[in-house]
Every structure is written in C-alpha cells, then in structure tokens.
C-alpha cells in the first residue's frame, strides 16, 4: 500500500507545540514558516515526534498541515534523542566543544528510531513523491527509505555544521552515517565547507568516485551543495513596523532603567553558543571601569533546552554562577549589569527585545547558521543597532558588515563591544543597510525554493 502525500517533510520534531491537554499551536521558527506554505500548496504532510515520551497519537490536521506523529519510548528519548543525537552527534559536529559520548547502546537506539521514521515515511509517501528529511537526528533515513521506496525523490538538509574529516573520523559509525546520507539525491548543507567535507569523506571513507560536488553511488549521482537557511524577512519587517511593538520596545528599555546601552543575547542555553565567553568579556569591561555603573545592561535570554543532558546541566550551573557573581560584584541598588532570563518568549516579545537592543551579541563557538543574527537584522528597519557576530557562525559568510569577533579572543570581543556601543549613527546605518539588503534578498522562502528546485531538477 502506498500513501497519498506527494510532498513529505521528515524531521525529528513536528512543527507544533502542545498547549494544554489536547490543543496544538504552530511552533515558532523559520523552518516551519518556510515550509508550511509549500506543504499547503502541494498536499504535503509532516512526519515527526510530538515531544512526549511513550505516547502514541493518530495523524491529525493542524493549520492546513497534515501531521503524522512518530512515537518515541522513554528509553528512546534517552538513548536516541538525548543520547546519540545530542550527546554524540551534536558535540562532534560542533568542533567537539564538548566531549562526544561514543556508546553502542546509543547507536543501536539511533538506528532503530531512524528505521521507524523511514518506515513511516515509506507508508505515507505517494508514488514518486518528494521527501525532504531534516537534520542530524535522521541521517540514516535517506538510505533506509530508498531501500523501501526507490521511486521517491529524496532530499536531506543538515541544519548544523558538517565537521572536517579529521573530526568526523572519530565516529565509530562514520561509514554507516555517510552511507545513510548517500541514500538522498541531494544533500544540503549550510556552508560550502560542509558540502566539501562531506564529498571528501565519501571519497576517503567509502572510496567512492566524486567530483567537486557530485558523488557516484552505484548507478546514481548524489549531489552535495550549500543552501544557507534564513528567516522570514518580510513578516518580521512588517511586524516591527506595528506601533505596539515599538511601544513595547520603549517599555522594555524603561523597565531596564533606560541605560545608555542595552546589549542583548538570545540563545538556547547551549554550550556551542559562547554565552560564558561573552559574559566574561562584558564582566571585564565592568571590572576595568570601561562600562560605568548604570551605563549599560546586558539582557541574556537563555532558552531552556535538552535539560536532562549532562553537559547542559553543567552549563546552566556555570552560567548562573557567572551571572550571579557579576551582578553581586558590580550591581547597585536598582541596577543589575546583567538581566538573565531562563524562559521562552513569543515572537512579538522577541521582536520588541530586538528593537530595544543597541548591540546584539551573537558569539557562538560554532553554529550551523544562527537565525537570531538574521532576525535582529530583519527587525532593524530603523537602521540603528549593531550586530556583534562570531566568525564561527554560518551567518558570518553573509553578514559581512557585522562587527566580527573570534569568541575565544576575549580582548577582541571587548574591543568589538566597545566599538559597537560607541559607533556614530551614520556608521551604524551604513552597516545595517548592507546587512538588511543581504537578508531581504536571501530569505527563508528562497532557501526552501532553491533546495526544492535543485532536488526536482
Ligand atoms: P538554534 O537553532 O541552535 O537554536 P538559531 O539561532 O539558528 O539557533 O535559532 C534559534 C531560534 O529560536 C530563533 O528563531 C529564535 O528566535 C528562537 N528563540 C531563541 N530563544 C528563544 C526564546 N527564549 N523564546 C522563543 N524563541 C526563541
Ligand atoms: C537546532 C537543531 C534542530 C533542533 C533545535 C532545537 O536548531 O538544528 O534540529 O530542533 O536545535 O533543539 P531540540 O533538541 O529542542 O529539538
């Protein structure tokens, strides 16, 4: 029996969050915004885990999207999601900034869950359908699915960096992962470097004939290309032109005590984001008196994430200790140099925060793209505001007029923050105009349509 979906997205997570017992709401974020319209146009379906352990749900429709939940047991959440995906692959693919865990038990769970996703996709896809598999949690699905359904067009996009051969080589299952990805017709990466790492590894590990961006697998050609993901520029730009967002931005600044400078960080509380490094740089500026008492507030939004994984528990303790110390040491009655929030926010509140911030500080040690940087740019039609950006974010390839930093270089970050805080308006405007031009012309819609055009070519 064949399914009926002619366009299928396969991702670890469904694009909805549960509100209360039985209700769902579309999850925020660029991927959903980009893909939802394509799904609506093409009779699409989205296959993914709904976020709760040990619960089986029937397929359902939401917001014009057909959603097919894939269940995960408690143990699979632990071994496949928290384990192999987020304690093995995540740190390995992010330059081993934390030590990856290599465990056969975790690998077995990863294989079993990938197999479940592949079977579910094979059941849902119509003859000749286009199936687009997303991200590092599902790298075995392309080959598994091709075996079950050779009639399908299979695309894969990796949202995180694909590591250099020297690091990927550590993985005891390097051969299986490469073979898994090579089940796709087109493998997409954030940066050209990721695509060439992949081609080089296919050549070295599997001895496959390959050119710059094509790999020969049996009688097929697999293409590897870069498609930098982006944000929905138009809708963010429109949102921040609404008066209530500007009112809220002013309110936020007032609530912070109307300091001369508001610096902002918005990240999942992840060790790849360089939160500790940026707070260290800011702390030294306070210690040296280069930022005076009351002059600035650093707002750090740290979204809760993967809270049962050991490295994340450790990171949270470290960051909260660091924030507590800096506030304790330099704060005054009525002024804390850091405003730290371990919470989620809705799109409007985030947009207001971006508008309230003079300096957006994005300093990952390694990041596939970093959408926060592009969201900030999309929200600054006033041409004010400065973006401090790590060279190690994928976004650095495109956002060349940001204040670039190496997050390992604390003195360099201090200099960049100071420059950004004191830059004259005409220079801020010049830089922001160029950043906005790039994001406006390379938005998320273009990302999705470029990828799908190439997949279907
Ligand atoms: P990552 O995918 O590693 O989390 P990105 O910067 O690429 O990093 O994407 C993060 C996304 O999550 C952005 O769209 C951002 O707006 C959103 N986000 C980050 N923090 C919050 C928060 N506290 N509340 C709501 N959304 C958030
Ligand atoms: C990154 C990954 C996504 C993941 C997201 C949130 O953006 O590339 O695949 O969905 O982080 O992480 P979570 O573990 O909560 O799904």
Automatic annotation (TrEMBL):
Superkingdom of the source species: Bacteria
GO molecular function terms attached to this record: alpha,alpha-trehalose-phosphate synthase (UDP-forming) activity
Biological processes annotated in GO: trehalose biosynthetic process
Signal peptide (residue range): none
Gene3D superfamilies in the record: Glycogen Phosphorylase B (3.40.50.2000)
Family, as annotated: Belongs to the glycosyltransferase 20 family.
Protein name per UniProt: Trehalose-6-phosphate synthase
Upper classification of the organism: Bacteria, Bacillati, Actinomycetota, Actinomycetes, Streptosporangiales
